[in-house]
Write a structure and sequence with these properties.
By secondary structure, the chain is an all-alpha fold. It is built from 7 helices and no strands. 66% of the residues lie in helices and 0% in strands. The longest helix is centred in the C-terminal third of the chain and has 20 residues. It starts with a helix and ends with a helix.
Length: 137
Amino acid sequence: SSSSSSSSSSEVCLPDFLIECFDEIRTRGLNFEGVFRVSGNFSEVDKLKAKCLSPIGRLGLNEFEIPEITSFFKLWLQALPEPVVPFTTFEALKLSIVKSEPKRCEEMGGCLDELPSSNHLVLRNIIKLLHEVTHYS
């Protein structure tokens, strides 16, 4: 049996820069048309990437335009060693989509439960953000 202190030390958290990106998109980007479609200025995205790699604390995203923040986020996703939804899980999800309703939900939930906790957390937060974006579009 594990104590609450040992479970909290192994608790998975979103990276601070990702929380900042999501918060900034929620604050300034929900009304931005094409929030994830419009590309940011490459040199500004590069500056943001450099800021993220330096140990400065908060990124201060208010100096960047929303397309630069979303472009940075998309680059981060592309740079992951493995996709948030690994290929094996993605293939299983695709197979479960064709099932009838109760079985589909059960199988899809099972697939997502198999994700590593860090992937599950990132995916849950991406879906939550995209859900919010669709309510404003």
